[in-house]
Amino acid sequence: MKLITFHSNHKVCAGYLLENMVVVCQEGEGADQALLNLCKAGSSSVQDWVKNEIRRVPLSSVELLAPIPEPLRDILCVGKNYFEHAKEFHNSGYDSSSKEAVPQYPIIFTKATTSVIANGAAVNSALDYTNSVDYEGELGVVIGKRAFQVAKEDAMSYVFGYTIINDVTSRELQKRHGQWTIGKGLDTFCPMGPWLVTADEIKDVSQLELVTTVNGEVRQKVSVADLIFDIPTLISTITATTTLLPGDIIATGTPVGVGIGFTPPKYLKPGDEVKVSITSLGELHNPIS
To answer: Which of 46, 113, 206, 250 sits at a 20 to 30 Å CA gap from 127?
Structure first.
């Protein structure tokens, strides 16, 4: 099921997508946290929640918000998690994470919740005074129940669903500050959406294909099967020492083809349009302002 958060009739609403129609299940107060609350309630709660149908409206008539507009905590992100991108970034001169091109263990960092924007919303490139804005199309994993010291073989049962994330980055700020928080967490630098697809719709997540285009030009194209550290490994690694909570979001890493990998770098500029599509998850598109 494709769960969405959106504006309709001057109200924040939540519901699900049924072909080209939106079924409104909640509106007004609390609707902005509806999908987060579904994660907390567990996957079994979705079927009961969708019975609260209020009305149906065309998808074209609503303004989408990020599926979870205000995440409970910062987005957990994974650096250098596709082989060719790990080499690309390591060779760029901007990699302060380690002396190794391909990491032995997952590199985890975070993006601020205030960086989250919706499908169609503009990335404010003016916030990066270094003019080094880059794109990173990624698969996002949404956690569905409290998780601590989870074994790899059990990890997928903790996944509520999936979404698309663009881990927009200021390369110069990323390099200057060593740790990646400032270069990754700028306001508007985490487009997310267009919706949250429940895990039961995705039979084999490793078979999903991710494609990123800039102004129609394909820059990234990869199978999720090519991850260095797959989703069970990421969940097991993080929860070995840290509790994941329902609604937590993991951005699993970006493939080769980011702007910094070109000579000269192909940074984003006002007027550009970035689209990230993933099989069965839709298309996340954002203009650069």
So the answer is: 250
Residue 125 in 3-state DSSP? helix
Give the dihedral of Cα atoms 132, 135, 249, 84; nearest 10 deg: -110
pLDDT at 2 over 80: yes
Enumerate domains of the chain plus CATH numbers.
Answer: 2-64 (no CATH), 75-287 (3.90.850.10)
Which amino acid is residue 66, in one-letter code? Answer: A
Q: Does residue 100 surpass a pLDDT of 90?
A: no
CB 253 within 8 A of CB 227: yes
The predicted model gives 222-238 an average pLDDT of 97
CA-based nearest residue to 172, from 127, 236, 228:
127
CA distances from 108 to 97, 143, 180, 200, 277 (A): 10, 16, 10, 27, 23
> Which residue from 184, 150, 191, 163 is spatially nearest to 252, judged by alpha carbons?
163
C-alpha 278/C-alpha 165 separation (Å) is 10
Helix (H) or strand (E) holding 35: helix 34-41
* Residues 179-189 pLDDT 10s: 789 999 999 99
Identify the pLDDT of residue 96. 66
DSSP-derived secondary structure letter, 244: B
Q: Are 196 and 161 in contact (CB under 8 A)?
A: yes
Across the range 92-116, mean pLDDT stands at 85
Closest CA relative to residue 3, chosen from 58, 64, 55, 54: 64
